[in-house]
Design brief:
The protein is built from 7 helices and 2 strands, in the order H-H-E-E-H-H-H-H-H. The chain is mostly helical and 149 residues long.
Amino acid sequence: MASFGRSIWAGLFSGAERVAEPKIGLEQSTVWAHSLETERARIRAENPAGIYKGRHYAEYAEDIRRLKREDPSAAEALLLDLIAVVEAEARTRRWKPPPAYYEHLAILRRKRRDYISEIAVLEQHEAWHSGGGKFAERLEKAKNLLARR
């Protein structure tokens, strides 16, 4: 994965407010990514493989669907944490993480027209899975939308 994707992937979640994302440079996104990477490392250390707050990550599917409708910012925060747990389990068990949470997060970011963050999520997914399929198509479309902006 390109360093661009890694530096931006995690760092652009701005919290609970729903305001337009500021235009940021790669230097800022690298600082944000570092702080979020530290938080993700803490989550991985506190939870056994595949477990987040006492539940297996697959048990959160219904919660994600509900939060996407009721509170998209909370859904994004939960998805970021779950992706960290999914990736930790994938590393432990030496398999590829399931794509569902990446897709949910990419959809939420597209709805906000946050194409940089969407691209970062899709590139994070592509780092685990070889290209092709709907994720590659979605990544290409997001890059085109960002270029038109």
